[in-house]
Amino acid sequence: MSNSGHPKDQGERRGLMLVISSPSGAGKTTLCRKLMDRFDDIKLSVSATTRPPRPGETNGVDYHFKTRDEFREMIRKREFLEWALVFDNLYGTPRADTEALLASGHDVLFDVDWQGADALHDQMPRDVVSVFILPPSIEALKGRLAARPGSTDEIVERRMRDARAEMRHWRRYDYAIVNDDLEIAYHRLERILLVERLKRLRQLSLEDHVRELMGEA
Ligand code: ADP
Ligand code: 5GP
């Protein structure tokens, strides 16, 4: 199903940056996919990276693939909202893409860790709405990690350590959702989005509307 969830009478709006973090295995990818299936005016942010493409990855869809020199030049020109070195490769969020999407009334979804979330908030404090996804229990998190294809005990143990480090930062976020029942968690995420869209600053056409109401148009 595809639906903007945005009634016509609401008029022109500025999109928002929905920044979602969670410990690996808590269900962030699942929740983000459901949101993208439901709303056709939400776009996933496409990062730039110096990592070579993996089989099946498409330039401009999965990532903007760059050489190190190209990436360094983009840093120099301040073209990133945030960037980081992850396992020997550079990754960054291009500023212009996000700005264009927001201005055209699209929401932009970011699947980033707490440091990425912090950096995005620093750059665009009025646009960022941040949500932290928590697992219902440590046992459930372990179970979900173990159920993933290719999981080994060692991978699960490492992810569990990383999970504790990530969860330490949950208080930085505007919202938190415990992903126990998937449908309930998804419904909560959707409600956050719909309410945030109603923030006065995002409803650009209200300026004209109120001017008209006041007889000032
Ligand atoms: P993340 O992106 O946070 O690492 P995923 O969305 O990949 O997590 O979810 C990890 C696993 O847990 C997947 O197999 C997914 O189907 C499952 N999962 C997600 N949410 C729930 C839920 N509410 N209840 C049970 N299983 C879930
Ligand atoms: P992968 O190479 O497996 O696609 O991603 C490796 C890591 O890079 C993941 O942890 C992912 O979250 C992180 N990453 C991807 N894009 C960005 C980005 O734009 N900024 C930051 N800070 N990290 C990113």
Outline:
This protein has helices at residues 28-38, 68-76, 95-103, 114-123, 138-146, 153-167, 182-197, 206-213, and strands at residues 17-21, 42-44, 48-49, 64-65, 80-86, 89-94, 107-111, 128-134, 175-178.
Can you offer a commentary on this structure?
This protein is α/β, with parallel strands linked by helices and 217 residues long. The protein has a domain at 12-45 and 106-213: P-loop containing nucleotide triphosphate hydrolases (Rossmann fold). It contains eight helices and nine strands. It has helices spanning 28-38, 68-76, 95-103, 114-123, 138-146, 153-167, 182-197, 206-213; strands at 17-21, 42-44, 48-49, 64-65, 80-86, 89-94, 107-111, 128-134, 175-178. The strands form two sheets. The chain has a five-stranded parallel β-sheet with strand order 2-7-1-8-9, with helices on both faces. The protein is globular, with a radius of gyration of 19 Å. It starts with 16 loop residues before the first strand and ends with a helix. Guanosine-5'-monophosphate binds next to strand 5 and strand 6.
